[in-house]
Structure to design on (156 residues):
């Protein structure tokens, strides 16, 4: 009886370890496939935001701060968007496979969700920073504030 319980416990441990190894292998496989996909970017709004900032009546210091913030946010957004697009390509290939790998699909789905959350968090963080640079209550800042915020919201 003791031997049977020991054997069952050992078999359960082997199954758990192999399951963890399998999940890690799936994650590594997905990461390699995503990295192999070439990035394709859609037209972005950075140019429009930069033009609006440059044409505004803001002080040069505020313009510089907004432009630096926009560059940083745009770089992060570009990187995240490229990763999402590459992951979606791998997901399409996974779904179109004659026998879909469920673990790979779930790994890809979770990766896309996490990246999308990261993209949104980047956008929300940028909006908060814009409010620190441009006073939304100031009549002279109202026009540029509205334009920058609208474009930021479209950009994420």
């Amino acid at each position: 009886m003791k031997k049977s319980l020991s054997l069952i416990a050992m078999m359960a441990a082997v199954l758990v370890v192999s399951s963890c190894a399998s999940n890690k292998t799936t994650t590594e496989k997905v990461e390699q496939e995503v990295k192999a996909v070439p990035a394709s970017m859609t037209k972005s709004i950075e140019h429009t935001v930069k033009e609006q900032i440059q044409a505004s009546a803001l002080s040069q210091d505020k313009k510089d701060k907004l432009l630096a913030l926009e560059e940083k946010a745009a770089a992060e957004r570009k990187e995240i968007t490229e990763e999402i697009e590459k992951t979606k390509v791998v997901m399409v290939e996974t779904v179109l496979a004659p026998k879909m790998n469920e673990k790979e699909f779930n790994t890809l789905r979770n990766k896309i969700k996490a990246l999308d959350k990261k993209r949104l968090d980047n956008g929300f963080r940028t909006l908060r920073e814009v409010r620190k640079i441009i006073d939304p209550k100031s009549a002279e800042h109202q026009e540029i504030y509205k334009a920058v915020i609208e474009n930021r919201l479209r950009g994420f």
